[in-house]
Design goal:
Order of helices and strands: HHH
Helix content: 40-55%
Largest sheet: none
Strand content: under 5%
Number of helices: 3
Distance between the termini: 23 Å
């Protein structure tokens, strides 16, 4: 779902080196790395207090709502 929003808003790919800060970086799916990297760079997502991004785990509705709020707030504040 987040990748669809990413594509609709025409975000550029992120630098996957920013994902090195996460403890679970080795299990981040390859298809999501550039998208996730951009979301980290833009501070739309930040991982959890244990230093994990949990990219392979389904997110909750609350987490999804927070990410969408972060994306659209930043997107429309730039306009």
């Amino acid at each position: 779902m987040l990748s669809a929003i990413f594509n609709i808003l025409e975000f550029e790919d992120g630098d996957i080196r920013v994902l090195e800060i996460f403890n679970d970086k080795s299990i981040i799916p390859n298809w999501s790395k550039k998208i996730l990297a951009r979301m980290v760079e833009e501070k739309y997502v930040s991982g959890n207090i244990k230093g994990n991004i949990k990219a392979s785990v389904a997110i909750t509705r609350e987490e999804f709502a927070q990410i969408i709020s972060n994306v659209f707030s930043a997107y429309y504040n730039k306009a």
